[in-house]
Write a structure and sequence with these properties.
Helix content is about 10%, strand content about 40%. It is mainly beta and about 210 residues long.
Length: about 210
């Protein structure tokens, strides 16, 4: 596959060409919040996970910087996620959207995840060993409306999530998401995800969704 290029704040760009793309799920640090999320998904017919956290490797070609993605299903939606990148043994952090087909999710998690491209910010931050995960803010907007907001206090530290996934080499790991503000998936068209760290310009990714005809 063609390499995916990332601009590194304070350093040279990096190119990933041979990597695993993995979607982690059920990464809530608060077990009560995790159970609430499981119930949220069960309400729309999505079965409980076999393991917590769960890991879903998908084709690396789904990772994209494109400002527009095309989907087949009528009920797809995005989720803001911290994205941890391991490249040549170094760690970088950015933000992405785990855009997912919600109808397929009722029967096959892999098919639901693999049905949609995964937009990710082009800009990444080298990860400091003393990063304060709990100070990082994550948010999403759908068609101009607030969709998700919170801090990473709600999630397992992404480095811990990566440690639970047995893999060598380069990895792009979507590290889980925050609860929806109103608890309802929205099949919107315009999405924006932001991740804000102290003393850094917020990282963001924005994209539009069109349905294949």
């Amino acid at each position: 596959m063609t390499g995916v290029v990332f601009d590194v704040i304070g350093g040279p760009a990096v190119t990933l060409s041979d990597f695993q793309l993995v979607i982690a799920g059920y990464t809530a640090r608060d077990q009560d919040a995790l159970r609430a999320h499981v119930k949220e998904l069960a309400a729309i017919g999505i079965p409980e996970p076999e393991s917590v956290p769960s890991f879903c490797p998908i084709p690396a070609g789904l990772l994209t910087h494109s400002a527009e993605i095309t989907v087949a299903g009528a009920r797809t939606s995005g989720e803001a996620e911290p994205v941890l990148i391991r490249h040549d043994g170094r760690l970088y952090l950015t933000v992405g959207s785990d855009h997912t087909d919600r109808d397929l999710q009722r029967t096959s998690l892999f098919e639901a995840k693999a049905a949609c491209a995964k937009p990710v910010s082009r800009v990444v931050v080298p990860l400091s060993p003393d990063v304060d995960w709990d100070s990082i803010e994550l948010a999403s907007r759908c068609d101009g409306h607030r969709y998700q907001e919170g801090r990473l206090t709600e999630l397992l530290p992404p480095v811990e999530t990566l440690e639970r996934f047995p893999a060598d080499g380069d990895v792009v790991l979507f590290c889980g998401t925050l609860p929806l503000l109103d608890g309802q998936f929205v099949a919107g068209h315009e999405w924006e995800m932001t991740l804000a760290m102290p003393h850094q310009q917020p990282l963001s990714v924005a994209y539009r969704v069109t349905q294949r005809t």
